[in-house]
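Design a sequence for this backbone.
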């Protein structure tokens, strides 16, 4: 099983090599901004693609947190769609294996059905060039992808959209735990809804089950039962990205912790 980490984008190939791994994830720009993507690798997107292919390193791009294509607010939804397309284009230019985006949310005064339908519209309006991986989230009573039922409603809404065949799922263990989803059968439950799990974000959680708090920590230092965490990863059967704190040393320790239990 391939296990990698979220790293700085300046030289992701070197970051992968420092961790003895063949896959990494990173942001292309500020994750808290509506500004478009920026490739900071020396030589630009083409050079990064060439270097990654030569080194046998798979690249994954995480879209900005600001993106919320489910929103009923035009001032949020329209810029979100634009930003999603920009990051899709940039991810394709560097040869990324996937673009990960959070499920987003509506507000308490909104009809959730409109949020699910906005996801359909977003899929149909996006020129999907690399797999678009929708990620489950940890908090929010009106989130589109916190609970299994909501994830199912997203999939029902987008399953008939043009481009749906290129939409996949990224399963985050911390988010699932904090979001209140039982982990023992989680991978099977998700696959029954989506038909696929393309990537796992392997993270321990600093907070209790169903806390709604999105706070990652290193394996063995959090509150997720170690056996359950390993069960989710094993049953998912997909590449793993650790979004845990630290640098190469801490990430290699996380890789070893996980492999020992797999």
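Sequence:
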């Amino acid at each position: 099983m391939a296990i990698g980490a979220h790293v700085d984008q300046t030289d992701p190939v070197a970051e992968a090599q420092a961790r003895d791994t063949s896959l990494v994830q990173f942001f292309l720009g500020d994750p808290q901004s509506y500004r478009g993507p920026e490739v900071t690798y020396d030589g630009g997107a083409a050079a990064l693609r060439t270097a990654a292919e030569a080194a046998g390193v798979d690249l994954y791009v995480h879209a900005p947190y600001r993106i919320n294509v489910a929103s009923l607010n035009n001032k949020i939804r329209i810029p979100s769609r634009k930003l999603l397309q920009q990051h899709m284009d940039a991810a394709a230019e560097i040869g990324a294996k996937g673009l990960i985006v959070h499920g987003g949310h509506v507000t308490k005064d909104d009809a959730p059905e409109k949020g699910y339908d906005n996801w359909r519209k977003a899929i149909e309006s996006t020129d999907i060039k690399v797999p678009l991986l929708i990620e489950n989230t940890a908090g929010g009573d009106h989130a589109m992808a916190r609970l299994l039922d909501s994830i199912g409603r997203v999939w029902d809404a987008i399953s008939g959209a043009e481009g749906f065949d290129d939409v996949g799922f990224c399963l985050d263990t911390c988010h699932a735990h904090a979001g209140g989803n039982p982990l023992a059968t989680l991978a099977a439950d998700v696959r029954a809804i989506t038909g696929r799990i393309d990537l796992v974000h392997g993270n321990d959680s600093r907070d209790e089950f169903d806390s709604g708090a999105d706070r990652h920590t290193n394996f063995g230092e959090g509150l997720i039962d170690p056996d359950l965490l390993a069960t989710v990863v094993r049953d998912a059967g997909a590449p793993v990205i650790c979004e845990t704190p630290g640098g190469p040393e801490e990430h290699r320790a996380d890789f070893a912790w996980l492999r020992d239990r797999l």
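The chain has one domain: 3-261.
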